[in-house]
Amino acid sequence: MSDSFAVLQLDDLPARRCSCGTTRRGFIAESDGQASVHLLQVQDAVTHHHRVATEYYIVLAGEGEVELDGVRHPARPMSAFLIKPGCRHRAIGDLTVLLVSLPAADDTDEYFDD
User: Which has the closest alpha carbon to 105: 59, 58, 66, 53?
Assistant: First the structure.
């Protein structure tokens, strides 16, 4: 690895459960926590929000919806969503999503409604 770039294969990263389904997260350490890139397979997503992170969802495959502050929006390949801090959100359906988080994903910045 170089100090000026990093390369990874998202689908080779270990999968882990998250509030949206299964994620493979990359570039957290390499970006010094400034950003992360995720390959997300949506499954049983739970509505949540972040107080710090801004997320970008880019749908790569599948059909479904992305719910933003209670409003459902259709999602299909090449649909993109900007989710700012405080926006309650979840993805619904059989979706594969490229997710970019600024700053990098941090499980302590995930909040659920009671």
Answer: 53
